[in-house]
Amino acid sequence: MFLIFINELAEILFTFGIVVKMFADDVKLYLKIVNNVDWFLQAALNALCKWADLWQLSISVDKCCVLSVGKVDPIVDVSLSGAVLPHVTSCRDLGVTVASDLSFSMHVKTL
Question: What global pTM score does this model have?
Fold first, then answer.
């Protein structure tokens, strides 16, 4: 039954140009932001919140963040359920530490 619910979410986010990666109950959203007026990510997060409210699912906002990959500064602030998501230089994803420069040095340090 969970697969039926979660597949609908992927279809909704795809309409905003979002690449969705799912593993169990984790969902990762990816989007190339080209300028500071690019509103697709915020619109997609709003759709995610609306979908979660509809199906009475909670989102762990405290586990969410924005990671900009490459040599660009974070351009936009985005919010999820009214909370502004923090911009980070690295985050842990399924046991692997992912850095904004895509190096594995921080992951190796934590082993």
Answer: 0.83
Integer Cα distance of 111 and 105 in angstroms:
10
59 Cα distance to chain centroid: 12
Structure-block tokens of residue 10:
């992927």
The H or E element containing residue 87 is strand 87-88
Alpha carbon distance 80, 44 (integer Å) = 10
Tens of pLDDT, residue by residue over 19-29, are 999 887 788 89
DSSP class of residue 83 equals E
Q: What is the total count of domains within the chain?
A: 1
Q: Which residue has the higher pLDDT, 45 or 36?
A: 45
